TrEMBL record, chain A:
Sample GO molecular function, one term: structural constituent of ribosome
Organism, as annotated: Trichoplusia ni
A Pfam family reported for this protein in Swiss-Prot or TrEMBL: MRP-S22
Name of the molecule in the record: 28S ribosomal protein S22, mitochondrial
GO terms for cellular component: mitochondrial small ribosomal subunit
Gene it is expressed from: LOC113491756
Signal peptide interval: none
InterPro entries: Ribosomal_mS22
Top-level taxon in the UniProt lineage: Eukaryota
Automatic annotation (TrEMBL), chain B:
InterPro entries: Ribosomal_bS16, Ribosomal_bS16_dom_sf
Source species of the chain: Trichoplusia ni (Cabbage looper)
Family membership noted in the UniProt record: Belongs to the bacterial ribosomal protein bS16 family.
GO cellular component: mitochondrial inner membrane; mitochondrial small ribosomal subunit
Name under which the protein is recorded: Small ribosomal subunit protein bS16m
Membrane-spanning parts: none
Pfam family for this entry, one: Ribosomal_S16
One GO term of the biological process aspect: mitochondrial translation
GO terms assigned for molecular function: structural constituent of ribosome
Length: 376, 133
């Protein structure tokens, strides 16, 4: 960009662009500071605990039309025609159970773990070997059936020290001898070059970036956490949550935002789209991760009520009395959260007010309908 | 052309002496070695009993020489009484699997000596130049 400007400036002397301006323009890159999971606290036990997993999966709001969408026809030279079958109720239930299982596999979340520590493990020092060779020797144990993370990989340095290799070397050698499909030996340019990475984010290719990061990196690598962190923050600042819903990356996104106490934008989006139950689940998640919510017991109790109800993919057009009861409890819980914890109080209150007005109309409508049918 | 299987295609005689040795597999000006077990009295161009690893003597862009060792199978063949050729014994010594081979120490010592001599020569030349000017 700065190059083009410079050319313009050279060709057109009237169009005066000072060097300072050019510098400012060329420096307009990502100003997002990535935050890694490198603190004192380890996120893994929290992330893998069953109640947090359930909350994250529910917040993903899986829509099977999106989960099972055709993504590429790579490897299929002929597209299959769909088959239609007549099934009995039992057979249909079986098929639905199968589809649920398949969706669970597709939506399995990439793990969130603490950042890895350097391996600094000297096995032996032999100063008599100084001068043997100017290159390092790297020895890999290729014994059959050993997992990549448990393989012996050691190096003999030119100064005669025998040591275990660090993570980056281990990853490279594992990829040399036991290649993983889709992983590159060198870092792909889209991650290595900030300009290319930025352009992908500008085009909102979040899912592509996250999918590729999952293949290229290990979850405890600093690069992985840097890439995902920048992507999540970019997505968060643009409020494009809908792009990641029903994918495996939504859970880690919510976990990231809640872990760093920056989930208020997500909360606002949930309130604006009228998903109060998910907002209440988000409050419960915050309680699980941070433990700083005022009415924690109410939120925990609400989770038990919300989880058995079916997932609401769109706004309901009829309400039962149970729905109304749950939703009013959710609204109360969120109100308290907004007063005590929120960083975007006025906006969220406004959104909640809008929801309430809409909801009141819906309640009147559904009660009127019931009366008209003679059920009330 | 597909590679022969790592289990090897050579004929196997239980009582014949085996040796673990480097077998050159690269092309002209590009050496590359397989670490293989074969009969002691068999030449290197003949099929081997089993491949146990590989050794790339040319440093890569990170200035590393890569060695792969199937330690489980190496232990098995050593247990069966296989002999080890000196280059392989040197590699196994450097890897920490065996004690360091004496020839490794010899090479290191000779390399240090030549370096010292070269340094001394350079210094002597410099001293001559300064004396003449």
């Amino acid at each position: 960009m700065s190059l083009i400007l410079r050319k313009l400036a050279r060709n057109n002397p009237r169009n005066i662009v000072t060097d300072a301006q050019i510098l400012v323009l060329s420096c307009r890159k990502l100003s997002i500071v990535p935050s890694l999971y490198d603190g004192e606290q380890d996120p893994a036990p929290k992330f893998f605990s069953p109640n947090v997993q359930v909350l994250l999966k529910r917040l993903t709001r899986p829509d099977f039309n999106k989960v099972f969408r055709k993504r590429t026809n790579h490897g299929l030279n002929i597209l299959k025609t769909p088959t239609y079958k007549f099934l009995t109720n039992e057979e249909l239930e079986e098929e639905i159970a199968k589809a649920n299982e398949k969706a669970d596999r597709l939506l399995q979340m990439p793990p969130i773990v603490k950042i890895q520590k350097h391996i600094d493990d000297v096995l032996s020092k032999d100063p008599a070997l100084v001068g043997y060779d100017t290159a390092k020797y790297i020895f890999t144990d290729i014994t059959f059936g050993v997992a990549n993370e448990h393989r012996f990989i050691v190096e003999r340095d030119p100064d005669g020290v025998l040591r275990s290799c660090d993570h980056d070397v281990r990853k490279r050698l594992n990829q040399v001898y036991f290649p993983l499909h889709g992983r590159r030996l060198r870092e792909p340019v889209m991650f290595a070059d900030p300009e290319k990475f930025n352009s992908l984010l500008e085009r909102e290719q979040y899912e592509f970036v996250l999918d590729r990061a999952c293949v290229q990196y290990e979850p405890d690598e600093p690069s992985y956490q840097r890439v995902t962190s920048i992507t999540y923050q970019h997505l968060d600042s643009n409020s494009k949550y809908e792009l990641l819903r029903s994918t495996r990356h939504f859970g880690p996104l919510v976990f990231y935002l809640t872990w760093h106490k920056s989930m208020d934008n997500l909360m606002l989006e949930l309130l604006q789209t009228g998903a109060v139950r998910e907002a209440a689940l988000l409050v419960a998640l915050r309680q699980d991760l941070q433990g700083d919510v005022v009415n924690s017991e109410v939120a925990q109790g609400l989770v038990q009520q919300i989880l058995p109800t079916p997932i609401q993919l769109k706004k309901p057009d009829r309400l039962t009395e149970e729905d109304i009861q749950i939703d009013t409890k959710c609204v109360e819980c969120i109100e308290k959260y907004i007063v005590s914890n929120s960083a975007m109080k006025s906006q969220q209150e406004l959104a909640l007010q809008g929801f309430r007005e809409n909801y009141q109309q819906l309640i009147e409508l559904s009660r009127g309908l019931q009366k008209a049918h003679g059920n009330a | 052309m597909s590679l022969p299987p790592a289990s090897g295609t050579g004929r196997y005689f239980a009582k014949a002496a085996k040796s673990i040795r480097l077998i050159r597999q690269g092309c002209t000006n590009r050496p590359f070695f397989h670490i293989s077990v074969t009969h002691r009295r068999r030449i290197n161009s003949q099929p081997v009993i089993e491949q146990l690893g590989s050794y790339d003597p040319m440093p890569n862009i990170n200035n590393e020489k890569l060695v792969a060792l199937n330690l489980e199978r190496i232990k098995y063949w050593l247990g069966n009484g296989a002999h080890i050729s000196t280059p392989v014994a040197e590699l196994l010594g450097l890897s920490g699997f065996l004690p360091i081979h004496p020839r490794s120490y010899m090479t290191a010592w000779r390399n240090r000596r030549t370096e010292r001599e070269n340094l001394a020569k350079l210094e002597a030349e410099k001293a001559k130049e300064t004396a003449s000017t």
